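Input (structure):
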């Protein structure tokens, strides 16, 4: 009877090995490599992301502690600090960037996690809702001197497109933190029939026109100084107002010469009104506001990745090492999301990551591991309920006994 594979082995089966091998051949990743291949390197980096290793020494020591298992899981036996450091510094970043992109496309097949937004998408015939934003990882200029200084610090920026219905990233590009958010608006892979949410940092009319020309929709927060005029009748419904407008400024009107809607509403708890611009004419103003409020999910995603994966501290100081580590973190996030969806894990991705991180070298099917976790949770909940009932019963009996004694 065949042995059950390790949990780590079951996880990495979701990585597209054939795609990765083609990328390695395309960019010559294994040229002059004798003992620590690109595949060994990738699995080692996924291991460190899942287990939260703090340094190269920590990675190497954790694998040496499971040397036989590490070999069978595909990491080979040459995961020394020197080999990992050299791979991070010298392997072509494009291999890991394109693999991360392939994993993001694969994660697009995951199930819908936000049922309300999924219902809205089906009701209005929208292919998907995506938030676009960037997040900066600050770097110390004394250790990363290749960074362009900005306000006395260095850093890199992750320009990201995030699927707010499935709660997985769809695209990521790492650049220097000096790059403006709106610079790459024309480079995102917009899809016909989808809707994209932008903060006001992306208020660039040629970029908005690129979204419209792709047959897609956008919702963007208006900047204060943008010039426009109303070209039709405004409609007010409760706290929402809806006005057709056109840009009148020289650059704005040449970048986006068509009509669009301005949806305005008061922000609870704050003195002021938020103004949203969109080219979608079929959704009510309340729905447009609801979608924009869900843009915060991309901020939550950035916070999750920074807190639970390793992209704030790095194992190497070169630009190559930094980018490989960040792209591997995105690959690992998509890997966790895909597997959690496949085994129908009902909890949060944080709970699933913790569950598998302490079970990587166990020989147990992932579905059985999840069932074991669920049963243990049910028993804990039952004990807590029994404890609460017992405490209540004891207190009631004590009060009753006290009353009888007083009588």
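Output (sequence):
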């Amino acid at each position: 009877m065949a042995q059950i594979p390790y949990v780590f082995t079951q996880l990495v089966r979701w990585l597209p090995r054939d795609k990765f091998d083609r990328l390695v051949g395309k960019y010559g990743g294994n040229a002059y490599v004798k003992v620590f291949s690109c595949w060994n390197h990738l699995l080692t980096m996924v291991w460190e992301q899942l287990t939260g290793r703090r340094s190269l020494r920590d990675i190497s020591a954790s694998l040496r502690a499971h040397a036989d298992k590490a070999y069978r899981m595909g990491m080979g036996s040459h995961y020394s600090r020197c080999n990992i450091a050299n791979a991070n510094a010298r392997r072509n970043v494009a291999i890991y960037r394109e693999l991360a992109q392939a994993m993001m496309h694969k994660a697009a097949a995951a199930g819908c996690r936000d049922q309300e937004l999924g219902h809205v998408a089906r009701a209005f015939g929208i292919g998907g809702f995506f938030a676009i934003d960037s997040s900066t990882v600050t770097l110390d200029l004394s250790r990363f001197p290749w960074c362009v200084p900005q306000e006395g610090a260095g850093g890199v920026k992750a320009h990201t497109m995030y699927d707010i219905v499935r709660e997985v990233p769809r695209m990521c590009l790492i650049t220097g933190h000096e790059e403006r958010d709106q610079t790459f608006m024309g480079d995102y892979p917009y899809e016909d029939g989808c809707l994209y949410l932008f903060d006001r940092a992306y208020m660039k009319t040629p970029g908005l026109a690129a979204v419209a020309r792709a047959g897609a929709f956008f919702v963007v927060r208006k900047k204060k100084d943008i010039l426009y005029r109303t070209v039709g009748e405004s409609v007010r419904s409760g706290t929402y107002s809806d006005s057709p407008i056109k840009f009148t400024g020289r650059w704005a009107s040449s970048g986006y010469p068509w009509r669009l809607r301005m949806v305005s509403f008061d922000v609870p708890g704050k003195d002021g009104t938020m103004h949203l611009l969109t080219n979608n004419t079929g959704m009510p103003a309340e729905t447009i506001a609801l979608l924009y409020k869900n843009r915060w999910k991309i901020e939550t995603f950035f916070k999750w990745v920074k807190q639970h994966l390793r992209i704030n501290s790095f194992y190497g100081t070169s630009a190559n090492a930094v980018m490989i580590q960040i792209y591997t973190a995105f690959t690992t996030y998509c890997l966790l999301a895909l597997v959690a969806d496949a085994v129908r894990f009902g909890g949060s991705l944080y709970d699933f990551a913790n569950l598998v991180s302490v079970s990587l070298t166990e020989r147990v099917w992932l579905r059985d591991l999840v069932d074991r976790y669920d049963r243990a949770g049910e028993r804990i909940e039952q004990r807590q309920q029994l404890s609460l009932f017992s405490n209540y019963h004891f207190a009631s009996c004590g009060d009753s006994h006290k009353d009888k004694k007083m009588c």
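Notes: The two ends are 73 Å apart (CA to CA). Residues 366-406 form the longest helix (41 residues).
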